Amino acid sequence: MSNKKLFCFGFGYTCDHLEQYLRSENTDNSWQISGTTSDLDKGQRFEKRDVSLLVQDQERVIGDIGSLIKGTTHLLISAPPKNLGCPIFRSYLRDIVSLDTLEWIGYLSTAGVYGNRYGNWVDETSEVRPSTIRGTRRAKAEEQWISLFKRYDAPVHIFRLAGIYGQGRSAIDSINAGIARRIYKEDHVFNRIHIDDISQILAASMLQPNPGAIYNVSDDEPAPSHEVISEAARIMGVEEPPLIDIEYANLAPMTESFYSDNKRISNKLIKEELGITLKYPTFREGLQECWGKESTSA
């Protein structure tokens, strides 16, 4: 894939790792990569990696977006939704539709659009019925981007991500920071995906676009959060935090809302259609990788 131009709206953790993946030794390194960020320091840091980032107030519309995204072949939307859906869609629809170079559009959504399934499995054919404000906003944004595919035949792909973790954002870091808690809720599981696997999944989709496709992005083993903390403590060789029943955990409203959904995410489609072999099929391998990098950089 030579002479490709990737533009990322909302250049955060996922886009950072995707950029590194696309320019790694194992993939083509001819990508031109740019995007937007609200972080001034990030804009300056990424210049050294040949990534051009426009530092933007998220509440302000970019007036010359057409010239900024001109020639874009791959467009990734990682910006969070608002009450009316995706602000990128609402602000820049005409500019995006007018791009005649586009080969692939990726929208990063969340598995939260499925809502609470009481621990049952869901796949990409399951009904969208969010049970939280965040999930409802994502569902609205998905509708908007899929409408772009239906109305204009735009090469839109939706990625429903499970909880993202990786170096700097894992149970290892929570334990190091002294904030890890082992919360117990009977029969409850979370779904998660390592950042490196997100990168390879997005790259695989870029190589073989399937406009209108929706993919679940999750690892092979949904698991309770307290088991993940226990495994991290074992790997680090430290004592695990005590187990606390959720009834007595006194969780912040935001944290408590994450426990309101309970489902198991099927990832069969990314394996069957995109040919993905997960680098970190469970949290065990993923945490081991995080600890290895943590130990190396210490």
Write a structural description:
The chain has 298 residues and is of the alpha/beta class. It has a single domain (5-166, 189-220, 261-280), classed as NAD(P)-binding Rossmann-like Domain (Rossmann fold, 3-Layer(aba) Sandwich), CATH 3.40.50.720. Helices cover 38% and strands 18% of the residues. The protein has helices at 13-22, 40-47, 65-68, 87-97, 133-152, 171-176, 195-207, 225-236, 253-258, 268-274, 283-297; strands at residues 5-9, 32-37, 51-55, 74-77, 104-110, 121-122, 156-161, 163-165, 182-184, 192-194, 214-217, 243-245, 264-265. The strands form 4 sheets. The chain has a 7-stranded parallel sheet with strand order 3-2-1-4-5-7-11, with helices on both faces. A two-stranded parallel sheet has the order 6-13. α1 crosses α7 (195-207) and α8 (225-236) runs parallel beside α11. The longest helix is centred in the middle third of the chain and has 20 residues, at 133-152. The radius of gyration is 19 Å and the shape is globular.
Task: Provide a short characterization of the protein structure.
By secondary structure, this protein is an alpha/beta fold.
What descriptive keywords fit this protein?
two-stranded parallel sheet, globular, 298 residues, alpha/beta, 38% helix, seven-stranded parallel beta sheet, 11 helices, Rossmann fold
